[in-house]
Write a structure and sequence with these properties.
The structure is a homodimer.
Chain A: H1 7-14, H2 18-25, H3 34-47, H4 53-60, E1 65-70, H5 76-92, E2 95-100, H6 105-117, E3 122-125, H7 132-140, E4 145-148, E5 158-162, H8 164-177, E6 182-187, H9 194-209, E7 213-218, H10 223-235, E8 247-251, H11 254-267, E9 275-279, E10 293-296, H12 299-312, E11 324-327, E12 330-332
Helix pairs in contact in A: 1-2, 1-3, 5-12, 8-9, 10-11
Chain B binds a DNA duplex through residues 6-8, 16-20, 22-23, 26, 31-33, 36, 51-62.
DNA sequence: TTGTACGCGTTATCAC
DNA sequence: GTGATAACGCGTACAA
């Protein structure tokens, strides 16, 4: 059973020293004579040598590993961002250690410990719980950290994500333009995830600014309960004697859009007559009959920015101020917000 | 900037030797006196010590790392399997290094090299190209290997995936039962992915066995072209003077189902009257009007089996025969294969 | 430009 | 039971 060749064997095969081989693979070939380079290259090829990253990491702390902690790997948004992160890593010669917490704070702690035990050089966190203390300890130790999508109060770290206020503004403007005057905002429980809070807050502020009426409903129970609440919203009589005003639903993210669509279809609502708009673009949004209007996040850009932020960190200098990188979404207008249909 | 404590510091703090501390964390506590255990535990806690996996991996080759190479991370099926893999890893105290090849054989080679440089203890491969030589070299070196979903001719390794023949049989039986007699099988180019070939072959064999008529179309071009072909299939006159027979589409995987649904809706077809069935269950299949009938793969089980197979490999003994673990799908019948609708 | 010697944090081996 | 010591494969002063 042939073992993998080590740097020593390559050195012997090439008639050179460890040091030279090491330099060769560390990208310092310009400091070697062309002849030596050639010999080393040939030897390495013959022996199929690859530097052992474990040993490399042990020495200088250069593991070339980036850790990414995702709250829900089955969320297409997370995967899309991960795709961007991966591409950026590849361009930098970094490897990506991915852990999924399934929104379990306990698991999150476990995985955090796991990743640090592999001496990751940077950490991208899409938090499920509030591991503030653990994370702060890591940044204090000089580990570059980037928060993805979800903010964490007590941690000084860059944040990369959506411009939630702008997103809600775009949504409200679009809905108002299309003639919807009474809105129902649907969200998952906003307690633990900062974007949910930001979006909800902005929604409520945005209503009054635009003289719209509306309310928010937090999904917690069953599909049935959601459907009941939507039905109540759609069927109750218009307020204050004003004439009948078109009503629309605004969904805080992809999961909510799915649930809301299911509910609307079950209620027999006609999309468009009943407005429907969601944050996060999904495969199937164009398929549901007149098409569902969405706000698409630039997931690839978000992913790449996460790595860029990580790399921009002055390594050990923790003096750099935490920055925010907020990306603007794009409105994809479809039939579900077209009254004339 | 506080560094992470090392085993030496813990040993000193606990008044013990490196060896004992190492044993403590290697799970050999039963070979230590309770008193020593206690002292080590206390010292480790005080210093917030965590074993350095890099150093561990260097010594014994025990990186506790599993590599997973995915052809397309944005395919929900892959993510679902990955979820199962991850869970299994966690239960075994393993970490998962995930790489996405975006179906690029070049990238696949790169990532393969990357993973081995991290001394992964096992590899799960959902192949994009045919890195047979590289993989065989790895198994020869004693690295446990599992092929996921896609077979690779020249490599002796376990395969975990769908029972494709059974899946097609189930689909054909279901369609025939529901009264569809003329079928169009839609697939992506079958050249490089073994499941596509297996499914296609079985489809053609299954037709004659059931006295159904049908044909296969390989998607390669645009949506428009697909729509044209589907339209041609749906509108041409019945063969051999037999009366009009209900027609149905069978989609080889989730991506195809999406494209086919788009095409059908554009053509204004009524689902059910025109049958539609797809392999792979997706979020939105229940949403499209009468519901789209699917074959759901047991993704979680597949993922867990992949790790189980990896761990079952006798490590260095390459004598173990390559086994196949074929899972049976489940029919989720919906309106798209109900003629009466 | 090239080679020598040491250390990174851990585990395995062998004494006690 | 416990402890000293030698690897593991590599990077890097430092010397030549």
């Amino acid at each position: 059973m042939p073992r993998r060749a080590t740097i020593i064997e390559v050195a012997r095969e090439a008639g050179a020293s460890k040091t030279s081989v090491s330099r060769y693979f560390a990208g310092e070939r310009d400091k070697l004579s062309p002849a030596l380079c050639e010999r080393i290259a040939a030897a390495a090829l013959r022996l199929d040598y690859r530097p052992n990253q474990m040993a490399r990491g042990l020495k200088g702390g250069h593991s070339r590993l980036i850790g990414m902690l995702v709250a829900d790997i089955r969320n297409p948004f997370s995967v899309a961002v991960m795709h961007g992160v991966e591409r950026a890593c590849r361009e930098q010669g970094l490897a990506l250690l991915v852990c999924n917490t399934d929104n379990d704070p306990e698991l999150e702690r476990t995985h955090l410990a796991l990743m640090t035990s592999y001496q990751v050089e940077g950490l991208i966190i899409n938090a499920s719980g509030s591991p503030d203390a653990e994370l702060q300890a890591l940044t204090d130790r000089g580990l570059p950290l980037v928060l993805l999508d979800r903010e964490l109060g007590a941690v000084e770290a860059d944040l990369v994500g959506l411009d939630n206020a702008r997103a809600i503004d775009l949504a409200l403007d679009h809905l108002a333009e299309q003639g919807y005057g009474e809105l129902l905002y649907l969200s998952e429980p906003p307690e633990r995830a900062s974007p949910r809070r930001e979006r909800l807050t902005r929604f409520q502020a945005g209503l009054t600014a635009r003289r719209l009426t509306g309310e928010a409903y937090t999904m917690s129970g069953s599909d049935e309960e959601l459907a009941r609440n939507i039905e109540a919203f759609l069927t109750r009589s218009a307020p204050k004697g004003s004439g009948e005003v078109p009503r629309a639903l605004l969904c805080a993210n992809g999961a909510v859009t799915l649930a809301a669509t299911r509910a609307l279809l079950r209620l027999g609502a006609r999309l468009g007559k009943t407005g429907l708009m969601g944050i996060d673009e999904l495969d199937w949004c164009a398929l549901i009959d007149p098409g569902i209007t969405t706000l698409a996040q630039p997931t690839e850009a978000i992913g790449q920015q996460a790595i860029a932020s990580l790399l921009a960190k002055p390594g050990n200098q923790a003096d750099a101020k935490a920055r925010q990188h907020r990306f603007e979404p794009r409105v994809i207008a479809r039939g579900s917000t077209r009254l004339s249909g």
